[in-house]
Amino acid sequence: MTEVLPDDADLTLSVSDRRELVEWTIACAERMLPLFLAERPDDTRPQKALDAARAFLRGELSIEAVREKAFACHAAAREADDPSALAAARVCGQAAAVAHMAGHARQVPRYTAKAFPGDRSRRDEELAWQRMNVPERFDHYVYDGD
């Protein structure tokens, strides 16, 4: 049986596809979250966005509720001063937003790349981890789909 690849032009995708992508985006965002917390340790909005995405995976939270947490996470990003913290919060917000629209997964590596200004080695290491762990059938969708 041949695995069906997602349509690169479809930014929404099916709920089951989005769930599979959310698992990956959460894993990516959890690795980035410490960069945000280093600047804003008391700001729980990015963690709450990831928690909401997990609740979506379990069928416990609606897409609208997850979107609200993603929006709040992006507000946290706008309040961050450090470029690494800002980019890390954006990764968390985009990760949660995948529950609503799969195309947000494409932003995870883009914001990750911005999280390590001046540290090309660390940036490349993180991007390589993401690429190695993206579900294989979504590799082209995330990295080359737009």
Overall description:
By secondary structure, the chain is mainly α. The chain has 7 helices and no strands. The protein has helices spanning 15-39, 45-57, 63-79, 83-97, 107-114, 120-133, 139-144. The radius of gyration is 14 Å and the shape is globular.
* Poorly predicted sequence stretches spanning 5 or more consecutive residues: none
What is the overall shape?
globular
How much is the average pLDDT?
96
Q: Termini separation (Å)? A: 27 Å
* Helix/strand order, N-terminal first: HHHHHHH
TL;DR of this structure?
The chain has 146 residues and is mainly α.
Q: How do the strands and helices of this protein lay out in sequence?
A:
Layout: H1 15-39, H2 45-57, H3 63-79, H4 83-97, H5 107-114, H6 120-133, H7 139-144
What key phrases describe this protein's structure?
mainly alpha, 7 helices, 146 residues, globular, single chain
